[in-house]
Design brief:
Elements (H helix, E strand, L loop, with lengths): L8 H39 L4 E5 L2 E7 L4 E12 L5 E12 L10 E9 L11 E2 L3 E3 L4 E10 L12 E11 L7 H5 L7 E7 L4 H6 L4 E4 L6 E2 L3
Antiparallel strand pairs: 1-3, 1-12, 2-3, 2-11, 3-8, 4-5, 4-7, 4-9, 5-6, 5-8, 9-10
């Protein structure tokens, strides 16, 4: 004979109590999720430190100033801020290295600083716009052509003939003096941008007398980013 079982009143009460307990937790879970989403939203929109990334196009220009004795690099730079707070770029440093072998008395690499804004002017008496610190608000973008001049003695010049050159562009950021532990932990930083460009030809008359510039190209014709 088969044996049958039936749930009694006690079993029904236990099942009903369990269902009610589970249902009672639903509003709590929804509240926790809403609080979590609002916290993340508040951090992303108001608390997140400046998150800067730098982009350099595949073409820049090499020129000379001061009657042809002072070389310069005009580099279009785009900086994006994916953070919520403002990031301030105080200055930019550029290091350029010639990849080919050089004569013993010539420099293998030189350092340059962010001196002026805008393209290299053909007119020698054109007004120069001095580089000024750039404040980039949260979720905003800054784009400008930066002219880099030698940091120190301009002679001897680094660029003597055509060839490939390696560039390293570094941004110097402002940091508040009275940072709290949170700001110190998440202080904004940006990686240097490294890229290699080729100078196809060099003409002293073209660069000095005519004050024209020469385009330098990347092999793959792609822009470079700091990867921040």
């Amino acid at each position: 004979m088969s044996e049958t079982t039936a749930d009694g009143p006690g079993q029904e009460q236990r099942d009903g109590g369990t269902s009610r307990n589970v249902l009672a937790l639903v509003p709590t879970a929804i509240s926790v999720m809403a609080f979590g989403f609002s916290t993340v939203s508040f951090y992303e929109s108001a608390m997140k430190q400046a998150d800067l990334a730098v982009f350099v196009p595949p073409v820049i220009h090499y020129g000379r100033d001061g009657g042809g004795d002072v070389e310069l690099f005009a580099i279009p730079v785009t900086i994006t801020n994916n953070g919520a707070r403002t990031g301030t770029v105080l200055s930019m440093d550029l290091e350029v290295e010639r990849l080919a072998e050089v004569e013993k008395d010539l420099p293998k690499s030189k350092r340059y600083y962010s001196a002026y804004l805008g393209e290299h002017a053909r007119n020698s008496d054109a007004i120069n716009r001095a580089f000024a610190p750039a404040s980039i608000a949260g979720r905003q973008t800054y784009s400008e052509t930066i002219r880099f001049y030698p940091a120190g003695n301009s002679l001897p010049k680094l660029v003597q003939d055509a060839g490939e050159y390696r560039f390293k562009l570094q941004l110097n950021l402002a940091e508040p003096a009275d940072q709290g532990w949170w700001d110190r932990l998440w202080s904004p930083k940006v990686n240097a941008v490294s890229f290699v460009l080729r100078l196809p030809w060099v003409s002293d008359q073209h660069l000095g007398f005519r004050r024209m510039s020469i385009a330098m190209h990347a092999k793959d014709h792609r822009s470079t980013t700091s990867g921040k």
